[in-house]
Design a protein that fits this description.
- The protein has 378 residues and is mainly beta.
- The strands form eight sheets. Strands 1-26-25-24 form a four-stranded antiparallel beta sheet, with no helix packed on it. A four-stranded antiparallel beta sheet has the order 4-5-6-9, with no helix packed on it. A four-stranded antiparallel beta sheet has the order 10-11-14-15, with no helix packed on it.
- Helix content is 5%, strand content 43%.
Length: 378
């Protein structure tokens, strides 16, 4: 697709008239049977030291089309070492997945060339990194961070671009309702967890992990919730926001007063040129029970643009449509941990697409950094 045609795709998203493209073969032949199978999994050793840094907190992953390797983002808020990303090679085939072989790491740099400081410094520039994507046009890295909401400090979330050595390039403007303001905007630690490019790189699409303060309560075992998918041009101009219906939490905590939550930690476009279809990860945790991770195929066509309204009263709002692609509990993994990142891997010899997911171990000895490879037919 040319850039001019891709720009037309981006404009069409705003009006909701653009349908997902169909291949010529899809028009004349039956689609192959949909399905997901486990290719394999790898566990990165806990607290692995690499080039003077502690590997952990891997909350985002993307395959680099320029190298065939992968980039991971760590959500270390400069508490252990400066906020950073890693590059790695991972061999994935129809028959298995190889070890994660790290090839480099760089800290993210501020516009002044300095690293981001820990929250404790109180200078207002701390970041909470969550997702990372390779810009398909420039090869730079685009990354999201959640900011901070505390009584004593409000730091806006952001989407920023950096060169491959971590040098700051620019920051995208964010819609007003995604900024931290008193009584409105994102909740603490429930902000820009998911990020993806779409429509041949003309769109930047982000997913808010939980409801905005003005969008109603979080999901519980008794009811779901509405979070948001945000569609912007690559320069940051907002085209639309869509309501995403989160599932109720899958179980009740033990004890009954324990934690129980569900949220959206990751999103990836189904096809690089398609502006409307995405895979969305829902990741739930219930104290005394464990994690549940499900991946849904989502379509924004026909959904209401809710950019200019609150969702606490969703009357008249048509959310995106969703279809369960896979529940990781059905794959017989060694464990289902805190999955926070998703990316497409290489096309497999079987005709399947490989799909990789990574878990954030929170630098905890009770969790693992888990890389899961799936074979997918859509």
């Amino acid at each position: 697709m040319s850039r001019a045609l891709a720009a037309i795709c981006a404009a069409a998203v705003a009006t909701g008239v653009l349908a997902a493209p169909a291949s010529a073969s899809a028009q004349h032949h039956p689609q192959p049977q949909r399905g997901v199978r486990l290719i394999g999994e790898r566990i990165v050793p806990h607290a692995l030291t690499y080039q003077g840094t502690t590997v952990g907190g891997l909350s985002g992953i993307d395959r680099d089309p320029f190298t065939g390797g992968y980039v991971f983002i760590s959500d270390d808020r400069s508490a252990l070492q400066p906020a950073r990303f890693y590059t790695a090679r991972v061999d994935v085939s129809a028959n298995g997945i190889g070890d994660v072989q790290f090839t480099g790491t760089h800290p993210f740099l501020r516009p002044d060339g300095k690293t981001y400081p820990p929250l404790a410094t109180g200078d207002g520039t701390t970041v909470d990194p969550e997702d990372i994507r390779v810009d398909p046009w420039s090869g730079n890295y685009t990354w999201s961070q959640e900011g901070e909401r505390r009584p004593e400090v409000l730091i806006d979330p952001s989407i920023r671009n950096t060169r491959r050595d971590g040098t700051f390039v620019n920051e995208l403007p964010l819609p007003a309702n995604l900024k931290m303001t008193p009584g409105r905007g994102p909740q603490q630690n429930l902000v820009l967890e998911g990020l993806t490019y779409a429509a041949a790189g003309t769109l930047v699409v982000s997913a808010v992990e939980g409801p905005l303060l003005q969008d109603g309560p979080n999901a519980t075992p008794d009811h779901g919730a509405l979070s948001r998918i945000v569609v912007q041009t690559r320069s940051g101009h907002q085209l639309a926001q869509y309501a995403y219906p989160q599932e109720p939490v899958f179980a009740r905590p033990v004890p009954a007063t324990g934690a129980a939550s569900n949220g959206v930690p990751a999103i990836v476009a189904v096809d690089p040129v398609d502006p409307t279809r995405f895979l969305v990860v829902e990741r739930a945790f219930v104290q005394g029970v464990g994690n549940k991770v499900r991946v849904y195929e989502v379509d924004t066509r026909g959904a209401t643009n809710v950019a200019n309204r609150d969702l606490v009263d969703p009357t008249g709002v048509r959310p995106v449509t969703k279809r369960l692609l896979v529940d990781l509990a059905d794959l017989h993994l060694s464990t289902v941990d805190n999955i926070e990142g998703i990316t497409w891997g290489p096309r497999l010899s079987t005709g399947e697409r490989s799909l990789l997911l990574v878990s954030d171990d929170n630098f905890s000895t009770t969790q693992v950094t888990q890389l899961v490879a799936l074979g997918v037919r859509l």
